[in-house]
Amino acid sequence: MSLVNPYSSQSLPQTQSASSTGIASNTTQTETSSNAYLDSVQHAEAAETPEPNSQELTQSDFFALLSQQLSMQDPFKPVENDQMISQMASFSTVDGIAKLNEEILNLNTLTSSSQALQASGLVGQKVLIPSDTGHIGTDSSEVKGVISTPTPIDSITVNIEDETGQVIRTFEVDGSAGGNIDVTWDGLDKNGEPVAEGNYAIKANGKIDGTSEDLAVSTYAHVSSVSLGDVTTGAILNLRGIGGIQLSDVLAVAES
Fold first, then answer.
1. Are 256 and 124 in contact (CB under 8 A)?
2. 134 φ, ψ to 5°?
3. What is the DSSP letter of 121?
């Protein structure tokens, strides 16, 4: 007597085997095809991501809208030539202004870079700035400045004030020459003692037509470095103990 295994593959119905084969075949066909080119196109399309919509009206968009307008116009009331030319001219003007703005921005960037390169030559020099504040430090024991007078003045009173506004020194300067009068403070207080490191203000006063008036004072400051800045500010000169100032605000340059 021979025994037959009921679970043997030979006893399985052929229809079940065909069905299993058919399912596997269908699964394979959904992933790939017999054409390699179609497969590559299918994978490329699946990997594509939609581009963000732009809100800008380009020249091609304008002409597309213009063509659509012409194709849907009333044949009995067509668009006049002057209207169409006016629309095209308006768009061309706007497009030209946009390109001009881009060129101006590029020119401003080049100008700022060139200005910063020129300003770098001022590092280590002293510049005259429209401020009455000077700095006393370990490497600068005196403050120099310029007093501007509208008319000649026999005597100009100069007061040196500390950061709290306290007057620590008073002296006289001859202003008979008029115009720009050079002034130098040696960094000593009223007792002849060197002052502490810090910022000090030079205040000038003189009589003009019998009336006592405050006079404009400019001081020299040491340039320690230069910052590039931006298109609006341009190059920035970093002054020792004072802070930053725009290159365009410099009144004069002196040797260090």
1. yes
2. -120, 165
3. G
The one-letter amino acid at 200: Y
pLDDT-derived band at 138 (thresholds 50, 70, 90) equals: confident
**69 pLDDT higher than 60:** yes
pTM above 0.70, yes or no: no
Distance CA 112, CA 117 (A): 9
Phi then psi for residue 42, to 5 deg, are -65, -45
Q: What is the Cα Rg of the chain in Å?
A: 42
Q: What is the DSSP letter of 189?
A: -
Going by C-alpha positions, the residue among 138, 149, 133, 119 that lies closest to residue 213 is 149
Task: Identify the residue whose tokens are 């490329």.
Answer: 44
What residue has token string 């009144």?
251
What mean pLDDT, rounded, does the chain reach? 76
Yes or no: say if 117 and 181 are a contact pair by the CB < 8 Å rule: no
Give the span between the Cα atoms of 216 and 251, in whole angstroms.
Answer: 13
Which residues partner with 212 through β-bridges?
Answer: 207
